[in-house]
Specification:
500 residues, six-stranded mixed beta sheet, binds nicotinamide-adenine-dinucleotide, globular, Aldehyde Dehydrogenase, Chain A, domain 1, Aldehyde Dehydrogenase, Chain A, domain 2, alpha/beta
Length: 500
């Protein structure tokens, strides 16, 4: 029987009123397993109204109360790691161990939010002028919303809501319509942890729901993670509507391999970072830039490793890579490989026609490796978001750096070298928000913020870490004087106040 996924509003499951549903498929079989309700404008309004009501008390709840609930949520998440990972695999397709990894990285942010008491400590300066003290505090914004992509249905929402609610905001999440069940599970666990009704709400759906959140007068801030064209649209629209907005977009992450690098370690890293989660990661390495004469040896080492990757259903413990999210996406990824030779690339591995026996309707694709890819090729220019690794050849560090910096994207990047001086130069000269030195996927830990440059992020704040706390709060500065009789009588003074 097909499962139904509803909304979560005011602390309970709410059936979709419009009768409009979208299909959710199991990517391993291609079968529709679930129908997800698509919210109308009225349903989004109901979720925002529930969040606004809840804000009246949650915004004033003590820090102790907020962090106690988050500690309970952390324990429930920990106990439910497997159950959440199974939901992710069933709708996203990634292998169970990878799904567990995303839950672990989300949990890191919950742990950060448990300690919000430290991050929200204000500042006080005493005696800035005679008997005058100044304090800086940060206060919540009100109702805030998150719009998230399909590729991390647990982790990306947890980049947002734990910090938002720890700061005293209430939250409306619009998860991806392609794998919506995880968000509802997180809502249930938050309720079990004792979160008051309405503090966390989920509206499922598509552009209708998103557009209503972008224009709703009671929504004060929008956090978005997804593809670049939609991130740009979200940033423009939400900004025009007077909202604070952070919109993280797509990527094309380069790995620069210098001639002195440990080539076995570099090949291991390239294969893990390019093909993990079938390349459906915003931090996946999709372009290796080989410097100097090492290119042939590096490509051989990558090919040897990539050929051995075991592809199969995510719930089979022997699988290392699962299927892609939809049939349409599978076909699009395959087209980059089938068109690569005509664009001047050497096709070393072609996985475009790969199928898994007995699961012919699954969204399967194999491993592809393209060498000597010109920068004019679509396979280089576009974010493919699939298991296709492109290799580009350059003669010098400078040429490699210029190539990376010419990319419109600037999410993550990595350098592989044994030369500390070159690594240091790269850290300072490369135009990207996250840099790995002999680390292929430099996703920052929870207490440092995550974010890209250029077309990979629109807005002023990166996500989680200190930037997260700043994004979900606004500053207030209080200047106080308690006069003393010894000061004598007050008097009128039309001059601009000066400190003395
Ligand atoms: P997407 O942009 O298609 O969708 C993201 C969200 O936006 C979903 O909730 C979707 O329902 C909504 N949406 C889609 N089209 C819309 C429209 N026209 N108007 C309003 N809302 C719309 O992204 P996706 O395919 O779900 O996710 C993959 C993309 O996300 C990749 O480009 C990947 O790089 C990016 N991503 C980026 C990061 C990051 O941190 N920078 C992290 C994860 C994923």
């Amino acid at each position: 029987m097909t499962k139904i996924v509803n909304h979560w509003i005011g602390g309970k499951s709410v059936e979709g009123a419009s009768g409009t549903y979208g299909p959710v498929t199991d990517p391993a079989t291609g079968a529709v397993t679930t129908n997800v309700a698509f919210a109308t404008v009225d349903e989004v309004d109901a979720a925002v109204a529930a969040a606004k009501d809840a804000y009246a008390t949650w915004g004033k709840a003590s820090l102790a109360k907020r962090s106690t609930i988050l500690f309970k949520f952390r324990a429930l998440l920990d106990a439910n790691r497997d159950a959440i990972a199974e939901l992710i695999t069933a709708e996203h397709g990634k292998v169970h161990s990878d799904a567990l990894g995303e839950v672990a990285r989300g949990l890191e942010i919950v742990e950060l939010a448990c300690g919000i008491t430290v991050q929200l400590k204000g500042e006080l300066s005493t005696e800035v002028a005679s008997r005058v003290d100044v304090s800086s505090i940060r206060q919540p914004l009100g109702v805030v919303a998150g719009i998230t992509p399909f590729n991390f249905p647990a982790m990306v929402p947890m980049w947002m809501f734990p910090i938002a609610i720890a700061c005293g905001n209430t939250f409306v999440l619009k998860p991806s319509e392609k794998d919506p069940s995880t968000a509802i599970k997180l809502a249930e666990l938050l309720a079990e942890a004792g979160l008051p009704d309405g503090v966390f709400n989920v509206v499922n759906g598509d552009k209708v729901a998103v557009d209503r959140l972008l224009e709703h007068p009671d929504v004060k801030a929008i956090s978005f993670v997804g593809s670049t064209p939609i991130a740009r649209y979200i940033h423009t629209t939400a900004s025009a509507n007077g909202k604070r907005v952070q919109a993280l977009g797509g990527a094309k992450n380069h790995m620069l391999v210098l001639p002195d690098a440990d080539l076995d370690a570099a090949a291991d890293a390239a294969v893990s970072a390019a093909y993990g989660s079938a390349g459906e990661r915003c931090m996946a390495i999709s372009a290796v830039v080989a410097v100097g004469a090492i290119g042939d040896e590096l490509v051989d080492k990558i090919r040897e490793r990539a050929e051995k990757i075991k592809i199969g259903p995510g719930n089979d413990p022997t699988s290392e890579m699962g299927p892609l999210i939809t049939k349409a996406h599978r076909d699009k990824v395959a087209s980059y490989v089938t068109g690569a030779a005509a664009e001047g690339a050497e096709v070393v591995l072609d996985g475009s026609a790969y199928r898994v026996d007995g699961l012919e309707d699954g969204h399967w694709i194999g491993i592809s490796l393209l060498d000597k890819v010109p920068t004019t090729a679509k396979a280089y220019q576009d974010e493919i978001f699939g298991p296709v690794l492109t290799v580009l050849r350059v003669d010098t560090y400078e040429e490699g750096l210029a190539l990376i910096n010419a990319s419109p994207f600037g999410n993550g990047t990595a350098i592989f070298t044994r030369d500390g001086g070159a690594a240091r130069r790269f850290q300072l000269e490369v135009e990207a928000g996250m840099v790995g030195v002999n680390v292929p996927i430099p996703v920052p830990v929870g207490y440092h913020s995550f974010g890209g440059w250029k077309d990979s992020l629109f807005g002023d704040h990166h996500i989680y870490g200190n930037d997260g706390t700043h994004f979900y709060t606004r500053g207030k500065v209080v200047t106080t004087r308690w006069p003393d009789p010894a000061d004598g009588p007050s008097g009128v003074d039309l001059g601009f106040p000066r400190n003395h």
